[in-house]
Amino acid sequence: MWEYTEKVKELYTNPKNVGKIEDADGVGYVGSVVCGDALTLYIKVKDGIITDAKFETFGCGSAIASSSALTEMIKGKTIEEAERITNSDIVEYLGGLPDQKIHCSVMGSEALINAIADYRGEKPQVEDEPSGEIVCHCMNISDVQIREAIHKKGIVNIDDMMEHLGSGTVCGTCIPKIEDIIEEEKGRCSVQTDRSCNDSMTNLQKMKKIEDVINNVIRPGLKRDGGDIELIDINGDDVSVRLMGACSRCMTASMTLENFVQEELRKSVSKSIVIKHV
Amino acid sequence: MRRDVYLDNNATTMVAPEVFDVMLPFLKDRYGNASSMHSFGGNVAKDLARARHQVAELLGAENDYEITFTGSATESDNLAIRGITSYYKDKKHVITSTVEHPAVLNLCKQLEKEGYRVTYIPVNSDGVIDLQQLKDSVTDDTAIVSIMHANNETGIIMPVEEIGAFLKERNVIFHIDGVQAAGKIPVDVKKLNCDLYSISAHKFHGPKGVGALYVKRGSRMRPLIFGGHQEKSRRPGTENTAGIIGIGMAAELALAHIKDMPHIEMLRDKLQNSILKTIKTSTVNGLNVPRTPNTLNVSFEFIEGESILLYLDKEGIYVSTGSACSSGSLEPSHVLRAMNIPFSKIHGSIRFSLSRYTTDDEIDYTLQVLPNVINTLLTISPFWDNEKKEGKNTIE
Description:
The structure holds two protein chains of two kinds.
Chain A: H1 6-13, E1 26-32, E2 37-46, E3 49-58, H2 61-74, H3 79-83, H4 87-93, H5 102-119, E4 134-136, E5 141-142, H6 143-153, H7 158-165, H8 175-186, H9 195-199, H10 203-224, E6 227-235, E7 238-245, H11 246-249, H12 253-268, E8 274-277
Parallel strand pairs in A: 7-8
Antiparallel strand pairs in A: 1-2, 2-3, 4-5, 6-7
Helix pairs in contact in A: 1-2, 2-5, 4-5, 6-8, 10-12
Chain B: E1 5-6, H1 17-27, H2 39-59, E2 67-70, H3 73-87, E3 93-97, H4 102-113, E4 117-121, H5 131-137, E5 142-148, H6 160-170, E6 173-177, H7 189-192, E7 196-200, E8 211-215, H8 241-257, H9 261-278, E9 282-284, E10 295-300, H10 305-314, E11 317-318, E12 320-321, H11 334-338, H12 343-346, E13 349-353, H13 360-380, H14 384-389
Helix pairs in contact in B: 1-8, 2-8, 9-13, 10-13
């Protein structure tokens, strides 16, 4: 049983502003029947002020209460004032929501954003549902978003992930699941995108990786320009190489090294790699 | 007039007054330890032996020592499956179904992490597991097959007797999770040809915190926990005497009241048929297959289960739902999903589960309240309007 506040109970039992506005100036729709909650918000605007608001909700008690609260909160406000309303304001109005029900208030603020966008003749700002499986139900964050953050932003620890996406910041029950996803993705180093790979590699793996990248990526590139490269030593993140052939006498040797070799190794192995020319 | 109508008996049941009465002395004066050499404790051992016999009778076990008391059905399930896999170390395959209780499913997921191969047998759209696929999945590497007798959400009864006969022939160990069957339908472990059978007291008017596991004579398994000689070291730890006395009495009563089941089934069918007749957006899950006589799982389309539950709660009617919103995990029912029921119907699913204490009046009251609740929620729903235009009406 969820611990609902009296305000929430009052609003789901006797919701205010239920229904449609046939000649609405803005309609915002979020959610779907598949994910288990959906909300349609109708607003009527006159001289920049929201004169009426109604809603239809498919959802649980807190979804009904959040929708009802939202309509009460925005009536009489200017569009600009309404725009500043966040999901936290809805939660506050309700006297709090159970952690796992915070997403109901998020749905409310998203419907409002979409309704205002519709009023202004813009496209909906908030997509129905992120693709993938929802991991953090409080903040409505999917595994796809988490995986993306790992690979594109190089986020490989839970604290950074919480700061970056907000996932796991409410009830926290999804934290082990997020950590599992991070572990899983770290293992996929063939993706070779970022420092997540570096962090999970042993020294030996890293050295092999550097050798691989030099032989299979960098050398073919240099050879096209009539040059070559030899790996001399690896000491931590310091990689010593010698340029040969056309490259060795080239005035732009240092630039070549820095721009090309170092870039390649940083991209594929570790962001902290430093190339030394010997 | 508001009243309390408890229709969530698959979640837990009222402790029968007779059960309460026999337990009470063991929480007060008769606190002796059954292992003690003196008569104050030793006499308690006699009562425990009687309880063991009562449970053996309920399950049709040949010998009382085939009953091991545990702390819950979850523990019984774990002891059964892990007890077997840790004895037969060379066998690395487990078979179960997609609609099992989390007590079995999550244990199987853990076994997978530990290197086991687990086959999850699917169910058809009626909710019954695919017998042929189960048969085809058995290999020489299969350590144990674990299938529920009846499903907790839908009441659907699985073909455990056929499975038992097949596995006996193949010499594969068979565990039945009988939590939702014991006390609702006749159980005979010999006829079912199972090696292990799990039950929980609080599902048949016994106390919480006590379960039992039937372990067929001669079975080889290892314990989950280690300690003293209690329960023949299969489940060590000083006995929960009051609880065990409680499950014993509850088992005796359940066996005696099996004859009441046709009456409960009649009440269930009355509820079911009346809902189907008056609420056009309703469908019954598991309508075409044998179910436990007390269980009714209904989907109400276009509205969400938790809100139905809360509106009924306000009227004093207590049910449960397979909706995502009301589960702690926020995942919709895995049982209804396995049956390929569309999400729109899963989110609006409600389980009514009756008991021998459910009255005709209570069903009438529920039928009086329910249509209004459904109607109110339909007026709030953004999905209902379109359907209405197409001429679907709800209440007649």
